[in-house]
Amino acid sequence: MVHFGQMNMNRRRDTDRIDKINYYLDIAQTVMEHSNCLHRSAGAIIVQDDVIVSTGYSHMARQDGAPRGECYEHCRVVHAEATAITGTPRELMLGATLYLVGREIQTGELLTDMWPCTKCLRHIIRAGIVRLVSRISPKDYNTVYVGPDCTKKGDSLIKVE
Q1: pTM for the full model?
Q2: What pLDDT does residue 127 have?
């Protein structure tokens, strides 16, 4: 029997709370579940001042007239970052953070090397997004600051002097 004023012992303590970055990465991972890509799935969210302004997931754009679930060999993947940026007003993304999570479809494992392609990185910088956070394990992540004075060289982002 529960009495009024009795403390719920199953309640999490504040020390058990996940940090804010993993909170947003968990949301991006949930968005990723909507992906229909057959190779890799990805989810992205754009956060500005603790407000989620956009979400995106990787998906295959069907050719016109192709029946749903068919002709995937002719499809091209639209990346999660591009989906999140497309249609979002730039003023909502200025100074924002993009959170990105990816998973290999066949193994179900998180992608530890998740990183935007060169084209998406250009869109990210052009959108005014200043920070990119990507999940590398269930609790760990990489954070990179991006901007117009940065460029991708190989697999890393460098600041152009």
Answers
A1: 0.79
A2: 95
Is residue 130 a contact partner of residue 96, using CB atoms and an 8 Å limit?
Answer: yes
Examine the pLDDT at 108 and tell me if it is beyond 60: yes
Task: Please state the separation of Cα 82 from the chain's center in Å.
Answer: 10
Q: Are 75 and 63 in contact (CB under 8 A)?
A: yes
Tell me which residue of 100, 107, 83, 79 sits closest to 146, measured CA to CA. Answer: 100
CA distance 109 to 102: 9
Structure tokens at 115: 């990183």
Rounded CA separation 94/29 (Å): 23
pLDDT greater at residue 52 or residue 7: 52
Q: In what order do the strands lie in the sheet with 131-135?
A: 51-57, 40-48, 97-104, 131-135, 141-145
Domains of the chain, first to last: 14-154 (3.40.140.10)
Residue with tokens 């804010």: 20
**Cα dihedral sign, 89-90-95-100:** positive
Three-state DSSP class for residue 139: coil
